[in-house]
Specification:
Helix content: over 70%
Number of helices: 10
Order of helices and strands: HHHHHHHHHH
Strand content: under 5%
Shape: globular
Amino acid sequence: MTSKKLNKLTAQKLHSKGAQLREQDKHNEALQYLTLAIIGYQKEKKYGDLVDALKDKVLTWKHLFLLKNDKVFAILAKKDAESMLSVSKEYKLEDRLHTSYFRLGEIDMLFEDYNNAIKNYTRALKFYVGPLSEKGDYRYHLGEALCRKGQKKKGKEGGRRGRRGEERGEKGRRKRRGEGRILIQLRSSV
């Protein structure tokens, strides 16, 4: 896409395209779109969306690290995760703190810094707002960090609690959508 066409896209469209490219493993293009989205969100003073675009950059750097096994990508991921947290704090985006800490924990795991990962996952849980299933995922990651640090018993319990939380969250979503009733009706009609 030419730079004239890119300049006409909204920050939201740039962000959406960047996230889509990341999912397609087109990392270089994704980073370009996400960077432009961040600049656009700053101009629009949409700092929550800016943090979300940074999150997608963190994930892109993380994918590149896992593919290329070059630590430079983990360093870049860490800096963008730190930026997420700084922006969240500066603009009092309480609903973005948990995601910022969670991403920092993920990057700490790449560096095998389990002490910091445990601290960041614990902070992510402290500030968490959102569905129970995602909170279960956070607990699971905390459990993994504890296990890797050598606290296997505590880590396994955290992992189990995380999986149970994910299951309860999924059951709650199905119940709210009425899927449980449909399954019961299907079973009784067979």
